[in-house]
Amino acid sequence: MLKSARFWRSVLSPARDWLTNLFQAGLAAVQPRTLLEQHTRIVEDRWCYPGQGLSIDVALPADGHVYICGAGKAVVPFAVGLVHSLGDRFHQGLIVTKTGHTEPLDKRVRILEAAHPVPDLSSEVAATELERFLLQVTANDVVFFLLTGGASALLAAPVPGISLADKQVVTRLLLASGANIHAINSVRKHLSRLKGGNVARLVSPARLVTLAVSDVIGDDPDSIGSGPTVADPTTYSQAVTILRGRGLYERLPSTVRVHLEHGEAGARRETPKPGDECFLNAQYRLLASLEDALDAIEQRARQDGVLVHRVTDPLQGDVGTCSTLLLQALDDLAAHASRPVLLLAGGEPTVEPKGSGKGGRMQHLALLLATALEGRNDVVGLAAGTDGTDGPTDAAGSFFTGDTLARALAVGLDPETCLRDFNAYALFAALGDHLMTGPTGTNVMDIVMIWMPE
Predict the structure, then answer these.
(1) What pLDDT, in 10s, does the model give residues 205-260?
(2) Which of 93, 105, 168, 392 is surrounded by the most beta carbons within 10 Å?
């Protein structure tokens, strides 16, 4: 145990600080509030966001109102930035965020809190209130719709004939199945009054400006928050195929099966598709994504004189598969790269919780990696979610080393049991190895860093 204690004092503590600073640099690059405050300009009654890439230029109406709406875990700071850029040129707003993710905001913007990741009554109330708010929009108005990860659960507006309890069952089944966010949202869009382009249908022909921060691999607009303001390429038939493919269809509430079957048969209105007239006055702009955060981390590490190897494939699919991918990349670096070197990856692994533990996919991944790296004194890693809440926990993620298992056993915790029970949270909490950030103000999926020092 003497070697472990010495390693902890001399290597892990400063390494944790450095990895935390890198993580914070990544977060700073994808703050929607900062991006809007830094880049937005009002030029002759036009709201302009040049940013990098596609610019947006919106004429502010002389004979109509400007509204601010949106949903997501990071939508409140997002709205703060937009309010700052618009000043007195907007009329009202209504946004929905995860419970506990609020901060002071202009009194003209109403904030509603709702549940995530499984919707509850607050999610249904919030969605209904947003729907009512949007019904006041006229053809002369402009609606800014702010979208970040988490919006799907926060806005639960089930179609007629399906109850909130039914949607909760569907959400829990999909989450427990390990389905990725694209598959989950394909189903949710066909059970909702708002998702899958239905917000655009609701406010048309008003001008609709969507500003988004991506929390999905590939940054597909129709997947971020289940795409409430953009065209939906998925169909009822695809939703049914996803559910059948995962063995979930027969476990669905009968009301959901009937609705989907009627949709397949053409007896339900499909979500609006590309080319639908409700998108004629709609604009869309992605402000930040995972790649922006990874770029900032890489730049900062290189400034510190550290070689960076970026895993090109995003972390997706089963968390165990992601662990194998990272370990192979680490072995290749150990064999060929000079030191110090940082392995950098990002994405959104999926898990199928099978135990009774608190969970957290990044913490589960961190413990898998720590198990494979047991006994090595040349690695320090961090796996964390950029929104500051790893799954249902209050931790962003966890630090891990080749010493993690030994230290866990020393305090009476069995790592294998923690993995089996999906209870990595308890292990890392006992070791003091959690990264605790609180709500970060953004959400661009997950980041893993593994540092091999000198």
Answers:
(1) 999 999 999 999 999 999 999 999 999 999 999 999 999 999 999 999 999 999 99
(2) 93
